[in-house]
Amino acid sequence: MSSPVLVCALRGADAFPALAAALQGWTQSRDRLSTVDSLPRALMALSPEVTFRQAILFFTEADLVTGKAQFYDCLTKLTQICFSLSEGDSWRCRAESLFSYLQAGAQVLCTVLLIKPGLWSRRLPGILWNVHLEKFSVVGMKHLDLEAATASALLPWEVQQDAAAVKAHCAYLTSGTVLVLCLQRPNAVKKLMDLLGPEDPQLAQALDPRLWRAQYGTSTVQNAFYGSRSYPMAVRDVKLFFPEGLCCAQCQTVQEQEV
């Protein structure tokens, strides 16, 4: 070869379409900037199977580490620095084989679905049927009355910047009993977010009438559901609503994150 290449092993939600979109945008920008073949070109694996075969050509298990890590001086070092836990350290990392991860498939995760006041008492059978069809397991369930502070903490960041919106949302969330479900399945957090759709039921209706907020929501305030928006928030929500534990053993990833 006339010049060296850089090989990266990347990991993330929807990794293949996300990386493909990023590379397409980068390629278009490169082509506009240069009419000669002097800028780098990138190739990516197109499936988990191809990724596995290519990864074992370039990496050993000792090269690949996952966990809580940060990248320092990535433009010069291009090295992932992982801090190992020792007594008194604030970071923890557990070595893991990427090859085993690729073979194991998606991890089983927990997430939280909160059904807002006035809805669950009327539409619960249909909601639970939707939950079942999407292959979620219900591993925790309780109905409770939210306090204003808890209701406020559930609001999206952009809503929390508007005092009037916060007041309206909190008034509704504390107006009656809510039903909280802890759901479990592979890729549970993202799957639930995809099913709920946008916070605005009208926008959800325009995107896809089958989205849950399109079916059950009536306004941006009375939009039927709250769902954990990320994995760290799902861990927080499980601890918040189910401090006594779940009806089955929690998945390993949740237990590790809670430490």
Automatic annotation (TrEMBL):
The keyword Cell division does not apply. This is NDK5 kinase. InterPro entries: NDK-like_dom, NDK-like_dom_sf, TXND_domain-containing. It holds the Pfam family NDK. Belongs to the NDK family. It comes from Elachura formosa (spotted wren-babbler). Transmembrane segments: none annotated. Residues 108-248 form the Nucleoside diphosphate kinase-like domain. The lineage of its organism: Eukaryota, Metazoa, Chordata, Craniata, Vertebrata. GO terms for molecular function: kinase activity. Keywords: Kinase, Transferase.
